[in-house]
Write a structure and sequence with these properties.
alpha+beta, 2 domains, six-stranded antiparallel beta sheet, three-stranded antiparallel beta sheet, binds zinc ion
Amino acid sequence: MKTCIFCPTALTSETKPEHIWPNALGGRATTRGVICSECNNTFGSTIDAALASQVQDLRTLLNLSSGDKRTPPPLQEIIDKNQKFFVWPDGRIELRQKPFTIVKRDDGGFDVTIKAKDSEHVDNLIPHVAAAIGISEENLRTQLGRANAREIIQPSPQITRNIAFGGHDPLRSLAKSCLILWNRSGQDSAIKESPFDAVKVFVTNGDKTFLSNKIKLDGRPIPGADILANKFGPIFNLIFIKSDRNGKILAYVGNYNTAYWRIVIADSGGMPNRSVGLVSNPLNPNNWSYLPDFGFDLDISWLETPVIDESSRNPGDSIGTALKDHTEKQREQHIHEMLIDTFRECQISEGSVITEEAIARFSRRFAQWLLRIKTDRPLSNEEINSLISLNKG
Ligand SMILES: [Zn+2]
């Protein structure tokens, strides 16, 4: 009977399939018959989670969904204690604030402050505010019609993130991916034996000595990177594993086409003369492939000699390109949305004439966004009334 490569547990038809790349990296390729469900769960909540948290910011900035098609959560940026911003995967930056506050006055009345982003938001808040102070919605609307209101447009903050790759636990997760790929469908029976002990201990328990002796950061550009970028986008994930005639197994692994590591999977005694590989496109997780579909091969002698050469490449290049493309798309989308919002506010629909007011509103909004200007102006009674009654009924 087949057992888990990391523990004595038997693998059955009930054993869950395992992702070769972790879910967080957009991994869709799965296999069975390598890891038991329990080890799978343990790795998921420990070393895979360590890798996932490392790539979290980048996933949100590039809107990279997970292997199971979930969109990444927003980045949260706290500017000061009163200003918390969410950066959503679609590029929207949203100021998060308490939508309303109610302070009871000595004379029995209430001071109500409502902070809303548009008239629809005001409309949604009115029932809650009315209930909180115990008056009817109608009464509240009447009172709000007489209240002071200001329109504040605030530019988005500049948000900076440092993104790092590598480190002990994330590399344990990458080494695990290599082992699963190597042993896909249980092909190398030696994987349960001593040639693989060191790498398996590293994956299951961690081992700083293994990290420094058997794993090397490789600064060289990978031969064939252009071919892969054409087929799988600029930030492909890659695992390439080869063995020589003595069964020495070397893996070359990297995520987002940035940093690569050479991992010694076995010094000798593994299945000889074999090549396996997996490449995937995090921008489109449906797009992935196994060797030999890459369109090129790596030579074992190339894998033998990792080189750190800081001058040879800039590891951020691929991500920089992807971020630039993505940001341009988001800008177009944002301008489009500003236009749609303005037309909606001015009740312009298909077939109607664009009014001067709509043009003026859009121009002001566009200029404020482009020039990052903060504005704060009082609203007229007419504007307040249109704000609180626009979506009513
Ligand atoms: Zn197990």
